[in-house]
Amino acid sequence: MNKLFCVLVGIGTVVSTYAQKFTTEKSSIVFFSDAALEDITASNLKAISIFDATKGEVAFSVPIKEFEFEKALMKEHFNEKYLESEKFPKATFQGVFEGYTVSQGGAQPVTAKGKLTIHGVTREVVIPGTLEFSAGKVVAKAKFIVKLEDYKIKIPQIVWQNIAEEVEVTIEFNYQS
Protein backbone atom coordinates (compact mmCIF):
# COMPACT_ATOMS: atom_id res chain seq x y z
CA MET A 1 0.00 0.00 0.00
CA ASN A 2 1.28 3.45 -0.89
CA LYS A 3 2.97 5.13 2.10
CA LEU A 4 1.43 8.55 1.43
CA PHE A 5 -2.02 7.04 1.08
CA CYS A 6 -1.56 5.46 4.52
CA VAL A 7 -0.52 8.84 5.94
CA LEU A 8 -3.54 10.58 4.36
CA VAL A 9 -5.89 7.91 5.69
CA GLY A 10 -4.14 7.98 9.07
CA ILE A 11 -4.53 11.74 9.38
CA GLY A 12 -8.18 11.41 8.43
CA THR A 13 -8.97 8.65 10.93
CA VAL A 14 -7.06 10.15 13.86
CA VAL A 15 -8.94 13.45 13.62
CA SER A 16 -11.57 13.79 16.34
CA THR A 17 -15.21 14.47 15.61
CA TYR A 18 -14.66 18.12 16.53
CA ALA A 19 -11.75 18.59 14.15
CA GLN A 20 -12.04 20.57 10.97
CA LYS A 21 -10.82 18.23 8.27
CA PHE A 22 -10.65 19.36 4.66
CA THR A 23 -9.88 17.53 1.42
CA THR A 24 -9.11 18.97 -1.98
CA GLU A 25 -12.02 19.90 -4.15
CA LYS A 26 -9.76 21.38 -6.81
CA SER A 27 -5.98 21.70 -7.08
CA SER A 28 -3.44 23.45 -9.26
CA ILE A 29 0.34 23.04 -9.34
CA VAL A 30 2.22 25.14 -11.90
CA PHE A 31 5.94 25.32 -12.42
CA PHE A 32 7.85 27.87 -14.42
CA SER A 33 11.43 27.53 -15.68
CA ASP A 34 12.98 30.81 -16.80
CA ALA A 35 16.06 29.76 -18.79
CA ALA A 36 18.38 31.66 -21.12
CA LEU A 37 16.97 30.21 -24.36
CA GLU A 38 13.48 29.06 -23.46
CA ASP A 39 10.79 29.50 -20.81
CA ILE A 40 8.94 26.35 -19.83
CA THR A 41 5.61 26.22 -18.02
CA ALA A 42 3.70 23.11 -16.98
CA SER A 43 0.53 22.64 -14.97
CA ASN A 44 -1.05 19.79 -13.05
CA LEU A 45 -4.67 19.69 -11.87
CA LYS A 46 -4.55 16.15 -10.41
CA ALA A 47 -2.89 16.69 -7.00
CA ILE A 48 -4.72 15.48 -3.91
CA SER A 49 -4.43 16.85 -0.39
CA ILE A 50 -5.86 16.66 3.10
CA PHE A 51 -5.70 19.40 5.75
CA ASP A 52 -6.63 19.13 9.43
CA ALA A 53 -7.28 22.76 10.43
CA THR A 54 -7.39 21.88 14.14
CA LYS A 55 -3.86 20.43 14.21
CA GLY A 56 -2.43 22.22 11.17
CA GLU A 57 -1.41 18.92 9.59
CA VAL A 58 -1.30 18.88 5.80
CA ALA A 59 -0.25 16.30 3.22
CA PHE A 60 -0.38 16.30 -0.55
CA SER A 61 0.56 14.06 -3.44
CA VAL A 62 1.25 15.17 -7.01
CA PRO A 63 1.27 12.61 -9.86
CA ILE A 64 4.29 13.60 -11.97
CA LYS A 65 2.93 12.22 -15.28
CA GLU A 66 -0.07 14.58 -15.04
CA PHE A 67 1.95 17.74 -15.74
CA GLU A 68 0.84 19.24 -19.04
CA PHE A 69 3.22 21.18 -21.29
CA GLU A 70 2.86 23.36 -24.36
CA LYS A 71 4.80 20.80 -26.42
CA ALA A 72 4.47 17.00 -26.27
CA LEU A 73 8.26 16.60 -26.55
CA MET A 74 8.75 18.71 -23.42
CA LYS A 75 6.43 16.39 -21.50
CA GLU A 76 8.26 13.33 -22.80
CA HIS A 77 11.68 14.67 -21.81
CA PHE A 78 10.36 15.85 -18.42
CA ASN A 79 9.00 12.38 -17.59
CA GLU A 80 11.76 10.25 -19.11
CA LYS A 81 15.00 12.21 -18.70
CA TYR A 82 14.56 14.60 -15.79
CA LEU A 83 11.90 13.47 -13.29
CA GLU A 84 12.06 9.77 -14.25
CA SER A 85 8.36 9.43 -13.51
CA GLU A 86 8.32 5.63 -13.98
CA LYS A 87 10.77 5.31 -11.09
CA PHE A 88 9.48 8.31 -9.06
CA PRO A 89 5.76 8.66 -9.94
CA LYS A 90 4.82 11.22 -7.25
CA ALA A 91 6.02 14.31 -5.48
CA THR A 92 4.74 14.59 -1.90
CA PHE A 93 4.63 16.95 1.06
CA GLN A 94 3.92 16.08 4.69
CA GLY A 95 3.96 18.79 7.32
CA VAL A 96 2.03 21.51 9.09
CA PHE A 97 0.64 24.96 8.39
CA GLU A 98 1.62 27.44 11.12
CA GLY A 99 0.49 30.96 11.95
CA TYR A 100 -3.28 30.96 11.36
CA THR A 101 -6.45 31.15 13.42
CA VAL A 102 -9.45 29.27 12.03
CA SER A 103 -11.98 31.43 13.90
CA GLN A 104 -10.51 34.61 12.42
CA GLY A 105 -11.57 33.71 8.89
CA GLY A 106 -10.44 35.51 5.77
CA ALA A 107 -6.99 35.35 4.18
CA GLN A 108 -4.08 34.86 6.55
CA PRO A 109 -0.33 34.51 6.00
CA VAL A 110 0.99 31.07 6.97
CA THR A 111 4.13 29.00 6.82
CA ALA A 112 4.16 25.38 5.70
CA LYS A 113 6.93 23.39 7.38
CA GLY A 114 7.63 19.78 6.54
CA LYS A 115 9.17 17.25 4.20
CA LEU A 116 9.00 17.73 0.44
CA THR A 117 9.87 14.69 -1.66
CA ILE A 118 10.67 15.08 -5.36
CA HIS A 119 12.55 12.61 -7.57
CA GLY A 120 13.00 10.27 -4.59
CA VAL A 121 14.79 12.91 -2.50
CA THR A 122 13.22 14.24 0.70
CA ARG A 123 14.19 17.61 2.14
CA GLU A 124 12.96 19.72 5.03
CA VAL A 125 11.34 22.90 3.67
CA VAL A 126 9.73 26.08 4.96
CA ILE A 127 7.29 27.61 2.48
CA PRO A 128 5.44 30.91 2.95
CA GLY A 129 1.87 31.12 1.73
CA THR A 130 -1.70 32.02 2.64
CA LEU A 131 -4.79 30.24 3.91
CA GLU A 132 -8.21 31.75 3.29
CA PHE A 133 -11.12 30.47 5.38
CA SER A 134 -14.73 31.03 4.29
CA ALA A 135 -18.01 29.11 4.62
CA GLY A 136 -16.66 25.58 5.13
CA LYS A 137 -13.94 26.02 2.54
CA VAL A 138 -10.24 26.79 2.69
CA VAL A 139 -7.95 27.98 -0.10
CA ALA A 140 -4.22 27.39 0.36
CA LYS A 141 -1.78 29.27 -1.89
CA ALA A 142 2.00 29.29 -2.04
CA LYS A 143 4.80 30.24 -4.41
CA PHE A 144 8.34 28.97 -3.86
CA ILE A 145 11.57 28.01 -5.60
CA VAL A 146 12.84 24.46 -6.10
CA LYS A 147 16.54 24.00 -6.89
CA LEU A 148 16.88 21.03 -9.22
CA GLU A 149 20.24 19.97 -7.79
CA ASP A 150 18.66 19.71 -4.30
CA TYR A 151 16.51 16.87 -5.64
CA LYS A 152 19.22 15.26 -7.80
CA ILE A 153 17.53 16.28 -11.04
CA LYS A 154 20.29 16.40 -13.61
CA ILE A 155 20.33 18.69 -16.63
CA PRO A 156 22.40 17.37 -19.55
CA GLN A 157 25.12 19.82 -20.60
CA ILE A 158 23.72 20.01 -24.12
CA VAL A 159 20.45 21.62 -22.91
CA TRP A 160 21.67 23.59 -19.90
CA GLN A 161 20.57 26.89 -21.52
CA ASN A 162 17.03 25.54 -22.06
CA ILE A 163 16.31 24.54 -18.46
CA ALA A 164 16.69 26.75 -15.41
CA GLU A 165 18.57 25.44 -12.37
CA GLU A 166 15.77 26.82 -10.20
CA VAL A 167 12.08 26.37 -10.92
CA GLU A 168 9.27 28.53 -9.54
CA VAL A 169 6.37 26.46 -8.20
CA THR A 170 2.91 27.91 -7.60
CA ILE A 171 0.39 25.87 -5.64
CA GLU A 172 -3.31 26.42 -5.05
CA PHE A 173 -5.49 23.93 -3.20
CA ASN A 174 -9.21 24.53 -2.81
CA TYR A 175 -10.38 22.49 0.17
CA GLN A 176 -13.87 21.62 1.31
CA SER A 177 -14.99 20.01 4.56
Description:
This protein is mainly beta and 177 residues long. It is 13% helix and 52% strand. It is built from 2 helices and 10 strands; from the N terminus they run αβββββαβββββ. The longest helix has 12 residues, at 3-14. It is elongated, with a radius of gyration of 17 Å.
Q: Could you provide a short overview of the structure?
A:
This protein is mainly β and 177 residues long.
Please name the defining characteristics of this protein.
mainly beta; elongated; 177 residues; single chain; Lipocalin
Task: Kindly identify the CATH topology.
Answer: Lipocalin
Number of helices: 2
Instruction: Bin the strand percentage.
Output: over 45%
Q: Tell me about the largest β-sheet.
A: 8 strands, antiparallel, barrel
Distance between termini? 25 Å
Shape descriptor: elongated
As an assembly, this protein is single chain
| SSE topology string | HEEEEEHEEEEE
**Number of individual domains:** 1
Helix content: 10-25%
